[in-house]
Amino acid sequence: MKLALIYDRVNKFGGAERILLALHRLWPDAPLFTAVYDQTKAPWAKKFDVRPSFLQNFPGAKSNHELYPWLTPLAFENFDLNGFDVVLSVTSAEAKAVITKPQTLHLCYCLTPTRYLWSHSKHYLESSLGWGLKPMLNYLKRFDLVAANRPDAYAAISQTVAKRIKRYYRRTVPVIYPPIDTAKFARQVKNVSLNNVPVNYHLLVGRLVSYKSLDLAIKAFNRLKLPLVIVGHGREQAKLIQMSGPTITFFNKVSENDLIYLYQNARALIMPQEEDFGLAAVEAQAAGTPILALNRGGAIETVVNGKTGILFDRPAVDSLTATVKKSNSRAWDRKVIKAQAKKFDVKNFNQAFTQWVEEEWLKHQQNLKQKY
Asked: Which has fewest Cβ within 10 Å: 44, 137, 167, 234?
């Protein structure tokens, strides 16, 4: 079985990129097709055979793909995938738009239906990107629905995403939770290179973008006057630093070893946003650290309220501050927290994902025999 991977853009590192690395371990010879590839921002991709589209040579496209919203779907349509038995798109946007011949099986591992068009469209329209998105919104929605019909089968990263796929794309799909190497986050850490880590800190890990609601966490910890460590980088970084008080510490990039240390020594991980799944929440639980998360999205599926964390109902400063105080007043059982994370271990992902691909491939071959 000759397989190709398709991904929206290779110019950052986050949860989706960890999924790609797990898939690379399953299919190491699979090339990775993408709209744009920025080697300086995605050193993790050096082990892949990365094949970018014609957008690669457009001014500013590597870092600012949103400059070309009408061209990105066309970039994926122009890939020649005739030599592959299976095409696997991993996407929260346009990668599912690839065109395949009937003999090729197109599977989509959906991170979420295109966020800026559906579940979070209001947020994007009200942001600084709204000026370019609003005039094209209806066109892009229509194209996205066309592209959404191209995969032969879907799997979702969470029940939250599966519900969105049902709502927006009218398809009922199975769930395969993303992979977490739980043993890695539980191991003893040595040779930490971090400086100026505060004592008794809470932790927030993620890209510094507006929909992650980091401003809510910063306002809460400014009010509490408690230490908060934020790990990540993104377009909102300058704004967030400016609004932060003296108890907020930022680390732009940290090594894997240092991140594990931060997980293991934090009082709790803060998740003020609705996540599609939320890899950081499972990584922190694998390290034995409780989660304080908004009671929406993936956190509902990964956090056991009252046992491995606390789910707060309102995305408001007073709600989060009360949750932090409640968490700090109790003792947490690290063994129980670690046991919850093991439900999402990479071994479970490998087994479920390969089984899904093999079953869909078998059904596809049987369908081809019936048709031809």
From this structure: 167
